[in-house]
Amino acid sequence: MIARTHILGLGTALPEHVVTNDDLSGLMDTSDEWIAQRTGIRERRHIQTDTGATDLGAAAARAALADAGTDIDAIDAIIFATLSPDIDWPASAVLLARKLGARPMPAFDVRDQCSGFLYSLAVADALIRAGRARQVLVVGGEVHSTGLDLTTRGREVGVIFGDGAAAAVIGPTPDAQRGLLSVHLHAEGAFAERLWIEVVASRRKPRIRLEDLAGDDPAIYPHMNGRYVFKHAVTRFPEVIRESLAFNGLSTDDIDVLVPHQANLRISQFVAAELGLDEAKVVNNIDRYGNTTAASIPLALAEAVRDGRVTRGRTVCLAAFGAGFTWGAAVLRW
Ligand code: UT7
Fold it and tell me: Which residues does the annotation mark as catalytic?
């Protein structure tokens, strides 16, 4: 009898090449001071040669399987969260499954940007509880750097995103005291244009136009209304964290560790202050990796487990907000 599901193992994979804020200052009109003050980011990783999100994802997945003491043969489904799929279609999850040598099994992508890991976690939990899978591999992987406008024109977005992947093995735990207590998910498409990448768009005829690549504001790059996103983020994060705590009969005092999606250090600090949380309880690694969207929560969680901040019995809250808008929170007893 499954009491709950739990994260049985975590793994990460990052490109070796480090891009500092000073490196970006050589490409565009920006500065280490501006980026560090406004975002908390000091460096991020960029791939240097052809590398797909599933290449990083496969390395992270192998590490997670090893960490869980299991292997791909024990996995019954693969979920890949990404906004930067290797190719348009088929799903990157099938390419990932192939790289991992998986037998035929369900493999699909989740396209919910910064909330993708939480959406995937909820689906993995549901599959296992419904008896459709025993262990599920959830991977968040991104290669942003090949799709950024790294000139002054694209600086607002170009400086924040980084490449990386992280994976989690989700499986049953018979211990009713441990595991995933809840996941709450939300989406509000009214704000899709506030943070999006419009092209390539199948709804347009013709699908690809020459002007997409040219002009003052090429449609092929991500577009973001930073201030607007920021304002929504600092409202939705505390709201959904409180919602998930209340669902479990918990209060903010019960949070031992908060792992927020790494969008902006100022957002995380604002959320901590709003919730009255000691900043020491909040995991931040945006200084080293920037915003890795779907990979960011498992990447930060894996670090917090590795450095001993997340230990058995601790109450851990994961929370995300991003493009869509989508947002959510999960509560786990480690
Ligand atoms: O993970 C998905 C969710 N994403 C987010 O949560 C991102 C939320 N938004 C943010 O984190 C912030 O809005 C940013 C970090 C993106 C921007 O910070 P901001 O404090 O909101 O700056 P701003 O957009 O209001 O821009 C202030 C100034 C502008 O110049 P003017 O108009 O005041 O002359 C920008 O052109 O800073 C300028 N600017 C830059 N300057 C140097 C924008 N980007 C840069 C840059 N370097 N990279």
Answer: 114, 261, 291
Q: How far is the CA of 128 from the centre of ligand 1 (A)?
A: 41
Tell me the whole-structure pTM to 2 decimals: 0.97
Helices (H), 130-225: 155-158
Q: What is the DSSP-derived secondary structure letter of residue 279?
A: G
The dihedral of CA 147, 153, 157, 163: what is its sign? positive
Q: Among 22, 156, 231, which residue has the most ligand 1 atoms within 8 Å of its CB, making it the best to mutate? A: 156
* CATH architecture of residue range(s) 179-333: 3-Layer(aba) Sandwich (3.40)
Which tens digit of pLDDT belongs to each residue from 3-53? Answer: 899 999 999 999 999 999 999 999 999 999 999 999 999 999 999 999 999
Spell out the alpha helix ranges (H) of 104-187: 116-129, 155-158
Domain residue spans of the chain = 4-173, 179-333
